[in-house]
Design a protein that fits this description.
The protein is α+β, with helices and mostly antiparallel strands. It has two domains: 207 residues, no CATH class; 55 residues, no CATH class. 25% of the residues lie in helices and 22% in strands. Strands 1, 2, 3, 4, 5, 6, 9, 10 and 11 form a nine-stranded mixed sheet that branches. A two-stranded antiparallel ribbon has the order 7-8. Helix 4 packs across helix 5. The chain is globular and about 70 Å long.
Length: 276
């Protein structure tokens, strides 16, 4: 049996090590739950696809975010998102991930869209906050809209500075062309140039999107381990609680502080919180 809940259970069992492990990538993750592990390349970890129980699909993709403060480190590899098509993850450049998943016994195409989670650890002196959070916490605007909106600002600045006049239709066409991250992720070769150029999209969490920020999200307390899931209605909350109870057992649930809190831009989330 494998799912993000089972993965969180394994984190809970070893939670004291979050304060002593120097690098998050060296945390003793339960490899039996994983279909791949490639630290430094998205995804850092992936959960095995689960075919034994309809309550758990598994297959979740996980990126590790480690920081020596309560500021979340930059998202360098991919713009954070809540779900991701597996065909966009398994490319010719990421063939190692495909081989690992197949070796783990996954039928990759059986789950073509995966939930994305971020395991975020922030250290502040002797204090620590650890959050396994669904990517929708960071994706409050669609990725294409985020990129095109940012590129639109660059274009407007250059038009203003250069004094060039561009009609609205042409301007919008240019913005639409540059709305996908893949436009910037390739290395470019220019004739007679002795260097290669590669544009890179880097993403940083604003205060309202920083779940470690004690002013914006005081509910996420110091020295706690948290599982944070989108929870926009009562029916969804019931399902989330059922999945959690199925993995942990009703008695163990008394060890957790379970509560809903409001994201500044993206509705309500349900948290399962435990002291480290």
């Amino acid at each position: 049996m494998s799912s993000i809940y089972h993965f969180f259970h394994s984190l809970s069992s070893n939670r004291s090590q979050f304060k002593t492990t120097a690098k998050l990538e060296n945390f003793p993750f339960n490899t039996e739950l994983l279909s791949c592990s490639n630290v430094g390349k998205f995804p850092d970890l992936a959960i095995r696809i689960n075919t034994q129980d309809e309550l758990f699909r598994g297959g979740e993709l996980i990126e590790l975010k480690d920081s020596k403060s309560y500021a979340i480190s930059s998202f360098n590899s991919t713009v954070p998102t809540g779900r991701k098509k597996i065909k966009k993850v398994i490319t010719s450049e990421n063939s190692t991930i495909k081989r690992q998943m197949e070796a783990a016994g996954d039928d990759i195409d059986s789950l073509r869209e995966r939930d994305v989670f971020y395991l975020v650890r922030g250290l502040s002196g002797t204090l620590a906050k650890v959050v396994l959070v669904h990517g929708s916490f960071f994706e409050t605007v669609q990725v294409n809209d985020l990129i095109s909106g940012s590129f639109s600002q660059v274009l407007e600045e250059r038009i203003h500075e250069s004094g060039i006049e561009i009609d609205d239709d042409t301007k919008q066409a240019i913005i639409d062309v540059f709305s996908e991250q893949k436009s910037f992720s390739k290395t470019r070769h220019v004739d007679n140039a002795s260097v290669k150029l590669r544009f890179r999209v880097m993403t940083e969490a604003k205060a309202e999107g920083n779940i470690l920020n004690r002013r914006k999200y005081p509910e996420i307390e110091d020295n706690t381990l948290n599982l944070v899931l989108p929870c926009h209605d009562d029916e969804m909350e019931e399902i989330l609680r059922l999945r959690f109870k199925t993995v942990f057992g009703e008695k163990a649930m008394t060890q957790f502080n379970i509560f809903k809190f409001k994201h500044h831009f993206n509705g309500y989330f349900l948290a399962f919180q435990q002291k480290i």
